[in-house]
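HOLO CASE FILE
Compound: adenosine-5'-triphosphate
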Amino acid sequence: MSKPSDLIPPERPFASDRGVAKYFHGRKDILQKFTDQMREAKRTGGGTIFLVQAAPGAGKTALLAECRRIAELAKWETAEINSSDLWDTNTLLESLDQETKQKEGGWSGHLEGGVDVPGVGSMKAGGGYESKKIDTPRTTLDVLKDGKEALLLILDEAQCLAEDIPPHPSDRRTRTRVLLDNIYNGKVKRPVILLAGGLGFTESVFESLAVSRIEGDAFVGLGPLSQASTRLVIKDWLVNEGGAEGNPNPWIDKISPETHGWPQHILAYMKPAIRYLGANAGKMIPTGLKDVLEEGRERRVQYYTRRAKGLTRMQREAIARFLFTIPEGKRFAREDLVAVLKEDLGSEAKADSIFDKAFRKGILDERDGDYIVPIPSMHNWFVDEYGPSRDMSIRPVEIPSSDHGLG
Ligand SMILES: Nc1ncnc2c1ncn2[C@@H]1O[C@H](COP(=O)(O)OP(=O)(O)OP(=O)(O)O)[C@@H](O)[C@H]1O
Ligand SMILES: [Mg+2]
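Model generated. Tokens follow.
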């Protein structure tokens, strides 16, 4: 009979294609921008909103985590928050307190819930936020004003600010606006940065909450990683995680161009690579590479399929008919795609709504008022699957030399 311990598989290296990066590289110019904003906030005692915007899998969450690491090194207080924390005193306190407790060695307390505008306590001597009921109604702004330390609030998936899921109190938007206005205009009386990550339309969500315009130096549209950074990420995974023996360059040379510098794609190839290396004592032989490339390509297609989910075949075909006329990686005007969608789908309203859907799903991304399919191989996949037929062998494309990639 097998022992329970036999049933537990041995620990294996695992590469997730979402979330904080185990081997982070690149984005140096963006991290510099962020550091400059921190310095400025400290200098003026004010604050700002720093927005990182991109299609799914571009590396927003990983970048936010790296910014947080920088802030912690600079002795900033940091906290991951949810969109409700901008208007709900209770949940904001919980997020702030959780961070403090975690640093102190474990969260033990809990906050009283169920009160619409709860009364809350003040800063503890140790720097944490203590929750206790007092009579004066207080706001999320009051909570932030309680502290003196420089504070980094991290809001991932910030596009969710647009969602209106009941049972939210009716003045939720007003409360959110007030807090954002105070942070954005440096009125919290301490250095505060709200670091937000979100999909391509997040800036417009902030606009709808009366943040008129995110300052140019505090706005990042995330593009692919540079070729050099891509190679470094792959190398770390192969050698440090997979235990690859010998020269990893032949594998890196083959894998790197197929990833197009897109972080999700890099991880799509690293998953099978480290599994293969783990099972073969780090040996890098050509048949192993062939299997890794095949599985990586399959995973890329799974990603594209997920992006297209929710669009009907007819809608996909209409988009593909237009993309067929555009070289991959090239920008185009919204009106040009909408015109083709209108021809195929019947009305301007329908065409507009399909365009917006494709944008929200990360099939399209914005570049200075124009649009683009952010990954060349996704552009090709679309045309290949749904457009007029053409030769679709995988073509390596040039990866931009800058990590920004939005030039
Ligand atoms: N600069 C980087 N260096 C190394 N790995 C990275 C880098 N950026 C992202 N990654 C890795 O790539 C994968 C995708 O990144 P991430 O999850 O941050 O993307 P995202 O834009 O937040 O995606 P989503 O919209 O799905 O949340 C993750 O496994 C992440 O750890
Ligand atoms: Mg993310």
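CASE NOTES: DSSP finds 15 helices and seven strands in the chain. The chain has three domains: 28-221, 227-307, 312-386.
CLOSED: yes
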